[in-house]
Structure formats: structure tokens, C-alpha cells
Design brief:
This protein has nine helices and 37 strands. It is an alpha+beta fold. The chain has a domain of 114 residues: Cytochrome c-like domain (Cytochrome Bc1 Complex, Chain D, domain 2, Orthogonal Bundle). The protein has a five-stranded antiparallel beta sheet. A hairpin with a 4-residue loop joins strand 32 and strand 33. Helix 6 packs across helix 9. The longest helix is centred in the C-terminal third of the chain and has 33 residues. It is globular, with a radius of gyration of 25 Å. The termini are far apart.
Length: 738
């Protein structure tokens, strides 16, 4: 795709608040007036472009080393120089070790009561923002859904530029899903890098917002990119998602200057009738069995990528193996199935395999998440280690050079295993007859943070009430789940403190030398805790679910803490809404909030209106048809975008989000066949299932009878929601008059 197909927007075209707003040029009059206005508009664009470049260079100012910089001036030398000062947040995780820790302490547990809102910026779109901001020399670089990128003045919140890569939604079901969220950008040597939902990696000039190059990372007819790019030795590391959809995973390194592919590490073997790409894959293939096993793909590398500059290794985690819908669900691949559910180390220069450790176990779906590096003293010996907490709920400490397992303990009371055998590295499984065989997601992708000052790793987790009577469910949707932020001692292998949280799924964690831990929650509360004790020392209710990653930096001698807000993440599409947000917080706006000491800007609490469920159409169908529709809702992966059990966004929202089917207006019910079978909304990411995308459904096609059954299930769910509201209304009115 040519650079001209992407859209950079300059100053004045988005809403930020420290005061400021939109400017407009009106068009009036006839031909002569129109020509004059076009000249004015052209001149204005030139002026704005010059202003943007000046503003960026002014914002960039001088580096922490005192040398003049260019916008996006991030290099290995600068990362090393900034590590001790913390003035910037140059990488995902701030430093290469991905600790998500800042040495800044101007804001601390003693004075945090004076923290106030410095500015905020509204972000357009119906989905919230989950990405981790990158901050370099007074400029914030932030990605949003559909891979849009913003450059923002860090001191004022003024928009400097916006880049829109014009992501296509009509190539793959998984690509449509992928485009709805974006995990962040990388910044390196004057460029900003972003992955897209249609499988592209794009380099953007940090000063001009113009596209420099793009590369195709994955097959857009299969999947897309949701995670952030990472940097290692002048290379941009990029993966993609799709393990649950039969996509074969890989991690790819690109030359940061040219976009040329340097190496590609496939994480699982391909068709065994063809030559294996590497000796490592030849070895891995021996751990697979089952007819057509290679067709299920797996092992994607979408998020957990860390470059360990101490060893020169890229250490990354893979997702699982197996598809639970459609035709791929009938393929039963058995064995260890390497390198699915593994932590893998490769040479950063060549991509050559060095070691792996498998955290997963056949039959228990898991996925590896954030990996951070640290030096620990274990049994009197200093060890350089990799620490990680996969979905399965154990906290692992591995030797960074060899991958040797040093310790593994459960973060909460898990049900699938009683321990990890340190000699074999394998789990001691709990039999299904004794309550094992399944495990809810304990730690998802949101990053942890490690403070060497306290010696604790701060981990956002999901726990389960001890008295919950419902059976344990795999994944994110079970009953009795709640959030728990844990201060974990990796040496003692136990929790020093933990805090219970109302919502099961909450945001990433930031710790600082000011003895503080910051985290946003699904309720919309942004909170700070004392890092040593877990005592809550500050909070503010934003009104928007927070599932992003807070960062901190210093500009003009003042420390700022910023957090994106708004109900986002791909989980909002394939997990029940109740596990991620409240009815109010899931409707809050998408914003970027900035806080500093002494700031007193009034907080813009959103006015949230919960829309009523429209009265559904009458229907007279049997329960058998409704149950058939419920099953087909999963077969055709409707629950992968519209949420399990129809527990979706709680509104009929179309502007880039996926609408809640219970809120369908009458005209959509009438157009059901045209949309669901005919694909009239494919350009918006909704395919027609009479002839669905071939990768996900090679042979299966939805019939009219199938569509009718799914429609009956949706209408039944809408009636339940509608009647539930009607029953609550009199009770709510009565309570108001008591």
C-alpha cells in the first residue's frame, strides 16, 4: 500500500482540554469564493504542517543528556542514559527489562494527596484505549483502536498529529476482531511503529506523521495484529494473534530503518510433508500427533516479547494450540505440541533458537503473558532471571541464559494443578474427578511491574470466591470471579500483600520509587497503593473502565502520571461484559488523562446514560429451536465478537465497535438475512455466513434455517434483557419515593 493511502492529521483536528478546541474554515459563495477558500485552505494546511513540526521539535527540546534531539529520538544509548533518571518512557516497560518501574519520586506516598488532573484529551471512536503510551522528550505517542496513532504534547495535552492507516475490516473474521483494539506503538530513531488489524507493520515519521515504510507481517485473510511492536538491536519485533483460529504463529524481526525482514521464527511446525524451516521445528514436530495435526496452527506471539540486553536474547511467550469452533475443532492434535504455550529464547541478531520452557499442559488451555527480567539472589546466589505469570495462575522464575526452572508457585488457589515439579518442569495435575481439568484465567496480558526497592512483583490477577457453587469454567467468563492485585515476593515465592477488586479484569501496573503502585480498574477507578504495604493512598473515579497501562515521566521538572481510559481490549468481544466493566463504566468515554501535583483542573465526570433495550419482535418458536440457535451462535463464532451469552456492549453502537445484539433496532431485525447471510456489512467487519471467509470455514456454510435459529436465540436473549429492565423499573421508582 502506498504511503498516500494513510491519513496524517495535524494540529487542531482533535479535542484536547487544557483549553483549546476545534477550528474550522467555512465554505461560502460561488466559484470565485470557492477558489479563494481553497487557496486559504491550502495555505492553512501548509501553516499547520509547519506548526506541527515546530511544535514537535519544541516539545522534543533537549534530551536527558542535554543534547539536541529530533522527534522520536530513541536509541540504545538514550535508553541506557534515561534508565536512572526516568524522565522519559522510551520503551514498552520503560527499559529493555520490561519492569514497568520508574525511578521518579517527586510524586510519592507522602504527598500524593495533592495529585490532581493536569489535562485530558478525548479520543475519537466507540472502543476504549488499552495501549501503553510511549513518551520521548515531551511527546506522548499513543495508539488507539483501528491502529490510529496520536502524538500529544506531554505538558499540555495538545494534539500534535494523528495518523490513520485505514485498516480494512473485510478480509478475515479474526482481522475484523483484531482491528478493534491495539496494544501500543514502538518509537525508535525518529520513527513510530504500529501494527494493524490487517497484518501490516507501519513505520511513521515522528516529526511529519508521514508513512515511511510498511511490511506485511501475517496473512490478512487469516488474522491480524493486536499487540505492540518491540525493539531489539535496531530491529522491530512483531507478532500477531490467531492461535484460537488455526493460525500458525511466528515472531518476525524487521530492520527498523528499511522494513526489510531480517528473520522469522515459526513457533509451531507446518505441513510435515514439506521441509521444516529450522532444526528446532524438526525437533518440535516430534512432539505432535493426530491426523492433520499441523492444520490447527497455534503458538501465536501477539504480546509477550522482551529483549534482554544482558544476554542478547529475545525472550517471548506463545499462546496455546487448538480451535474450539468450526471445522478445525474436529482436528485433535495431541502431545506436548511444541512450541505452543512456551517461553522461548532466540538470538536477537539471527532469530536462532536457544532454549524453551513449556508452561502449558495438554488439556488445560493457557497462554504466556508479560515477561520481565531482573537480578535476584536465590539460595545465596545472584541469578539473572526471567519472571512470568501465564494464564494458568503459577508464577515462574527461569534462568535467563538457560531457561532452567528455578521456582514456580500458584498466585491464587488454582484448581488444575497442585504444584510444578522442579525436576521435570511439569505440572502435578489434579484429576477432573477431584475438581481439576479446567482453570479460569488468573493472569491475562496486562503487564506486571517489578520494584527492586521493595523486591516485589505487582501482578493484576483474577481470583475466585471460595464459596462459589458453580463449576469452574475455563477462560474469562466463569461465576464468582473478582480482581486481586498482588504484591508478590519472587524470592520467598509468596504474596506479601494483596488487594481485592470488584471487577475480575483490571488494567496493567506501574510502580515507582515514590513507593507507589498505580493501576486502573474495570469500575473506572484509577488508584494508587503504597508499594510496600498495599495500602490504598489515592484514587479517582473516572467513569470509564480502565484496561490500559499507566506510565510516568517528567517534563520541565514536573512528574506526570498518565493513563488511557475507556472500555477496550479484545476481551470485551469474546468475554462477558460483566467480568470487565460495570453498566456505567463500559459506557464512559475514551480519554487520555494526565495527573501531576498541584494541578486543580475540575475533573470532567462523564454523564452516562444507560440506553433501554428496545422492545424485541414477538416470536413463537420452540425452546428446541432456541437451544439450537445458542449452539450455532458458538459454531459460527458469533460469541467471538458479540460476546458469550449475548453479554456485550450494552448498546447498539456502530462507530468502530461491535454492537450488542440484544439492542437491535427493528430495521436490523428486518435485514437479518441480508446482514448475516448476505454480508451487506462486510466492509464494517461482519461477514456473510452463507459464504463465509474460507480460512475460518473452508467448507461450512450457514443455511437459512441456521440463521433463523440464531435469530431466535438473539430475540430470546433480547426479551430476557427487556423484561428484566421492565421488572427493575417499578422497584427503582419505588425506592426513590421511600
Amino acid at each position: 500500500m502506498a504511503a498516500g493511502n494513510s491519513t496524517p492529521i495535524r494540529i487542531g483536528q482533535a479535542k484536547s482540554h487544557q483549553r483549546g478546541g476545534l477550528s474550522a474554515i467555512s465554505r461560502k459563495g460561488g466559484l470565485a469564493s470557492g477558489m479563494q477558500n481553497r487557496r486559504i485552505l491550502s495555505l492553512a494546511i501548509v501553516v499547520l504542517a509547519i506548526a506541527a513540526a515546530i511544535a514537535l521539535r519544541s516539545s522534543a527540546g533537549r534530551s536527558s543528556a542535554g543534547k539536541a534531539t529530533k522527534p522520536g529520538d530513541v536509541t540504545e544509548a538514550r535508553v541506557a542514559a534515561d534508565a536512572a533518571t526516568g524522565n522519559n518512557w522510551l520503551l514498552n516497560g520503560r527499559t529493555f527489562d520490561a519492569k514497568h518501574f520508574s525511578p521518579l519520586q517527586q510524586i510519592n506516598d507522602k504527598n500524593i494527596g495533592g495529585l490532581g488532573l493536569a489535562w485530558y484529551m478525548d479520543i475519537d471512536g466507540a472502543m476504549g484505549v488499552v495501549s501503553e503510551p510511549i513518551v520521548a522528550d515531551g511527546v506522548i505517542y499513543l495508539s488507539a483502536p483501528q491502529s490510529k496513532v496520536y502524538a500529544v504534547d506531554a505538558a499540555s495535552g495538545k494534539l500534535l498529529w494523528k495518523f490513520d492507516p485505514k485498516v480494512r475490516l473485510d478480509q478475515a473474521i479474526n482481522g475484523s476482531y483484531s482491528a478493534r483494539t491495539n496494544g501500543g506503538v514502538a518509537v525508535w530513531n525518529g520513527k513510530v511503529y504500529v501494527g494493524t488489524g490487517d497484518c501490516r507493520l507501519i513505520a511513521i515519521d515522528a516529526a511529519t506523521a508521514k508513512q515511511v515504510w510498511e511490511a506485511t507481517v501475517c496473512e490478512p485473510s487469516q488474522t491480524g495484529i493486536t499487540g505492540a511492536p518491540h525493539v531489539a538491536k535496531g530491529k522491530i519485533l512483531m507478532g500477531y494473534n490467531g492461535s484460537d483460529d488455526g493460525v500458525r504463529g511466528a515472531l518476525i524481526a524487521y530492520d527498523a530503518e528499511t522494513g526489510k525482514e531480517v528473520w522469522r521464527f515459526w513457533t509451531v511446525p507446518g505441513d510435515p510433508s514439506k521441509p521444516f524451516e529450522t532444526k528446532a521445528l524438526e525437533m518440535a514436530a516430534k512432539t505432535w500427533s493426530g491426523e492433520g495435526w499441523w492444520r490447527v496452527g497455534g503458538g501465536d506471539v501477539w504480546n509477550a516479547i522482551t529483549y534482554d540486553d544482558a544476554t542478547g536474547l529475545v525472550i517471548f511467550g506463545t499462546a496455546g494450540v487448538g480451535v474450539d469452533y468450526g471445522e478445525f475443532s474436529f482436528i485433535k492434535a495431541t502431545g506436548d505440541r511444541l512450541f505452543g504455550e512456551c517461553i522461548i529464547a532466540v538470538n536477537a541478531d539471527t532469530g536462532e533458537y536457544v532454549w524453551h520452557y513449556q508452561t502449558g499442559t495438554e488439556g488445560i488451555h493457557s497462554e504466556n503473558n508479560h515477561i520481565l527480567m531482573a537480578d535476584l539472589v536465590l539460595n545465596g546466589e545472584k541469578r539473572h532471571v526471567a519472571m512470568t505469570a501465564p494464564k494458568n495462575g503459577f508464577f515462574y522464575v527461569l534462568d535467563a541464559k538457560t531457561g532452567k526452572l528455578l521456582s514456580a508457585k500458584p498466585l491464587v488457589k488454582v484448581v488444575w494443578a497442585s504444584a510444578i515439579d522442579l525436576q521435570t518442569g511439569r505440572a502435578v495435575l489434579v484429576p477432573p474427578s477431584q475438581g481439576g481439568g479446567r482453570q479460569w484465567t488468573v493472569h491475562n496480558w496486562w503487564p506486571m511491574s517489578y520494584s527492586s526497592l521493595t523486591g516485589l512483583v505487582y501482578i493484576p490477577t483474577t481470583d475466585r470466591g471460595a464459596g462459589t457453587k458453580a463449576a469452574v469454567e475455563a477462560g474469562e467468563g466463569g461465576e464468582g470471579l473478582f480482581g486481586r492485585l498482588i504484591g508478590w515476593d519472587p524470592v520467598a515465592q509468596s504474596a506479601r500483600w494483596s488487594v481485592e477488586e470488584e471487577i475480575a479484569v483490571n488494567g496493567g501496573v506501574l510502580s515507582t520509587a515514590g513507593n507507589l503502585v498505580f493501576q486502573g480498574q474495570g469500575t473506572g477507578e484509577f488508584t494508587a497503593y503504597a508499594a510496600d504495604t498495599g495500602k490504598k493512598v489515592w484514587s479517582i473515579k473516572t467513569g470509564s473502565a480502565i484496561e490500559s497501562i499507566p506510565v510516568t515521566f517528567s517534563v520541565n521538572g514536573e512528574q506526570y502520571v498518565i493513563t488511557p481510559a475507556g472500555w477496550g481490549s479484545g476481551s470485551r468481544l469474546f468475554a462477558p461484559a460483566r467480568t470487565m466493566a460495570t453498566p456505567e463504566s463500559k459506557r464512559g468515554p475514551a480519554r487520555l488523562y494526565s495527573f501531576k501535583l498541584g494541578a486543580n483542573m475540575p475533573f470532567p465526570y462523564p454523564h452516562v446514560v444507560i440506553p433501554p433495550v428496545p422492545k424485541p419482535p414477538e416470536q413463537k418458536v420452540s425452546q428446541e429451536i432456541i437451544r439450537k440457535g445458542e449452539k450455532l451462535y458458538g459454531t459460527f463464532v458469533c460469541d467471538g465478537c458479540h460476546s458469550p451469552g449475548l453479554d456485550g456492549s450494552g448498546a447498539w453502537v456502530l462507530d468502530g465497535a461491535v454492537p450488542d445484539l440484544r439492542y437491535m433496532p427493528p430495521e436490523v431485525h428486518k435485514d437479518w438475512y441480508q446482514i448475516v447471510l448476505g454480508g451487506s456489512h462486510w466492509d464494517k467487519g461482519m461477514p456473510g455466513f452463507a459464504d463465509p471467509p474460507k480460512f475460518a470455514f473452508p467448507h461450512a456454510k450457514m443455511t437459512v434455517q441456521d440463521a433463523d435459529a440464531i435469530h431466535a436465540y438473539v430475540i430470546d436473549g433480547a426479551w430476557k434483557a427487556y423484561k428484566g429492565e421492565q421488572e427493575k423499573a417499578p422497584n427503582a421508582a419505588a425506592s426513590m419515593h421511600r
